Amino acid sequence: MPSLIFPAPVPAIAPIQGSEQGFPIRRIFCVGRNYEAHAKEMGSVADREAPFYFNKASEHYVPSGSTVPYAPGTKNLHHEMELVVAIGVTGFRIAEGEALKHVYGYACGLDMTRRDLQNAAKDKQRPWDLGKDFENAAVLSPIAPASVIGHPVSAAIELRVNGQTKQSSNIDQMVHPVAAIIAHLSQYYHLQPGDLIYTGTPEGVGAVVAGDVLEGSIAGVGTIALTIGAAE
Questions:
Q1: Does the keyword Acyltransferase apply (predicted)?
Q2: Could you give the count of Cα atoms lying within 13 Å of 110 in the half-sphere of its Cβ?
């Protein structure tokens, strides 16, 4: 093996609830328009035939409790609170009835979004990368092992900004539930331990500004927090 011209990147590692071990993050998949009410507030409709996806780089992971600068290049940074699935077992072309066997655990996530850049990309029928895949855009709580909490099907999901509730729903409102997402995604990728799936956000997304404190929760899964700092 040749020597490296600079040090290899350190992998992103998320904490695990009740453990000193960490969860190395491999890839981050995100499901779009997976709550009907959110799709409507975005002026669209949910894709009921099959989920669709976009990606975030694992380097953009941010642990819950962090303070991050207001994202560059945007004037309309939005919060999106989500249930996150952590894959723990390799799988390809997984049957829906077997899908949950591939789940290591669950977490709370914030899919931070540069909404103005995303909307501009939509208008030009371009990819969403600038609006979705940017530094500090994938916030994650400690992962709760499924062996401890089970597999949540109906659980309240909420996000508050400066103490005021902005998003409040239930994960049972997802158009495509967790098992269906895993089964579908695995038709196109060999899912691997370390993969994360952000499963979509309910209605109530909105803009944040420097100084805002975000606090979210999913019943039985955990809590998440983020502070928005000044722009760099």
A1: no
A2: 40
Alpha-carbon distance of 105 to 85, in angstroms, equals 6
pLDDT at 25: 98
Q: Is the CB of residue 167 less than 8 Å from the CB of residue 91?
A: no
pLDDT at 45: 86
CA dist 100 and 85 (Å) reads 10
Q: What is the model's pTM?
A: 0.97
Q: Which fold has domain 13-229?
A: Fumarylacetoacetate hydrolase; domain 2 (3.90.850)
Containing H/E element for 121? helix 115-123
Q: How far apart are the C-alpha atoms of 228 and 210, rounded to whole Å?
A: 5
Rounded to 5 degrees, what are φ and ψ at 59?
Answer: -65, -15
End-to-end CA distance of the chain: 39
| Alpha carbon distance 64, 224 (integer Å) | 5
Could you tell me the residue ranges of all domains in the chain?
Answer: 13-229
The tokens describing 79, both together, are 């919060």
pLDDT 10s digits, 113-134: 999 999 999 999 999 999 999 9
Question: Please, is 202 exposed, middle or buried when counting C-beta atoms within 10 Å of its C-beta (0-12, 13-18, 19+)?
Answer: buried
As a whole number of angstroms, the distance between CA 78 and CA 40 comes to: 16
pLDDT exceeds 90 at position 39: no
Whether 37 and 11 have beta carbons less than 8 Å apart is answered as no
- Return the pLDDT at 209: 98
Q: Rounded to whole angstroms, how far apart are CA atoms 131 and 133?
A: 6
